[in-house]
Amino acid sequence: MDSMDLKQLNKFIESMKGGSIKNYILEGLTSTLIDQGSIRLFESSRHQTRQITPHSHTYHLFCVVLSGGVFKKTWTLYEGEFGERSEADFKTDEFMLSTIEKTDKFGKYKKTNESVGRYFNRIAKFNTGNCYEIKQGEIHSIDFSKDAVVLVFQSPEVEEISQVIEPIYEGEVIETLITEDWMFLKQPKGEVEDE
Question: What is the pTM of this model?
Answer without folding.
Answer: 0.79
